[in-house]
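Workshop exercise sheet. Pairs work together: one partner reads the sequence aloud, the other fills in the structure field after running the prediction. Swap roles for the next sheet.
Pair: D.N. / O.F.
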Amino acid sequence: MTQKPHVDFIDPEDKDGTASQSTSERDAGTNAAKAANAEEANPAERVVELNIGDPHFMDNAYALYADLRAKGPVSRARFAVGGEEASEDGAEEPADLLGRRDTFFVTHYDEVIAALLDHRFSVDPRSGMTPEQLEEQPPMPEEFRIFSRSIISLDPPDHTRLRKLVQPSFTGRGMEALRGSIQQIVDDLLDQVEHDTAGRGETAPDRRMDLIEEFAYPFPVTVISDMLGIPREDRETIRGWTENLLRVDRLRGREVDEETRAGLREFIDYLKDLFEHKRRTPTDDMISRLVHVEEDGDTLDEDEMLATVLLMFLAGHVTTVNLVGNGVVALLTHPDQLAKLKANPELLARGVVEETLRYWGPVDFVGRRIATEDVEVGGTVIPTGDQMTASLASANRDPERFANPDVFDITRADANRHVAFGKGLHVCLGAPLARVEGQIAFTALFRRFPELRLAVPDEELRWGNSFLRGFACLPVLF
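Structure field:
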């Protein structure tokens, strides 16, 4: 199964089936050992390697985060991807999507929020560079330059202007108004699942499906494509163009492989044609509104529209894919919580969404925050030009904020205080949509398929080989 992409970091794919087992969360393994060794060698630095290409990284991450929290709110860390090798000239990739350089890794809840709210951190990697350093940067592939015009890569005032133009499409009230159409998409997908299993001669309660491939992935992709106004007949072609985007195995040193670049070029050309069509013949969808939007004289230029639509398409589904998959596994491996949901689905569907986001949130950390001046976080000074990374997953398991944080409890009163969607200027634009999608999905799945259960022992389930917390596949019986 293809691992789905994410726009803010690189998403490796588990091609050889060696990705980590998920639910046991056994020991801190390789990463914790490296952290201990680094501290012994140089206690002042305490540099821990966060090797998100390690097939066991996700399995051991929460134990590692707990170890780092115990040492203080801020640790020194360095990202790596598997067995990556240095480039021939020994240079690092400058402020790349992973942040492959030393970073200040923030793990305590209060400090994570404070850092994400601090305007002295910039998301523009160029903000901390001198003119000489900017000139020395290797060229970015032409196809990826548009991402520098995305709201996730811009600081105010550009960020403020773009978000003002885009935000109206993602209000909580607007997403609630879509419940009926989202429910219909869910019902249609589950109808198709039943039709497919009947065609194979399977009967309840022993019908089989891969929940990720047959439901959790096509569900949010259909929702966001409908919202954007992408014709249904084009969507399979678009998936072929975009499924390789930002996967680590598609990087060759500082290069992105040609197949991935060609796919992105095809998608960009397709979107340009679609924009022109929507200008001439607008319909009731986001792209039509974006090509005509204007407020106080501000409009979106073509690069900004391309960056915005690419962000909406890619980020508009990956969070929900993992939210649905993670939540289903959490419920099926906590039968007491599943019983509570089945007894009162309308009341507790919201609780399942919020607790899943806290317990197994889709994104473990957000980085590329560059200090524009010396910034003190939790007693540690982050020097001008250095990078800060906020561990959302660690904050969501901080015992100083959440009682019994390693317990999955869908009735947890303060679960919605999680930071799974980030905080501050760059809080996830699609959070209201993901919440509504999750509530509808969990209610419908267990109402339609009350016998839904894992088809394999839970210890055989595998996380995708990435810091994105999601299952590569999820075989279930129903």
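Discussion prompt: The chain has one domain: 29-477. What would you look at next?
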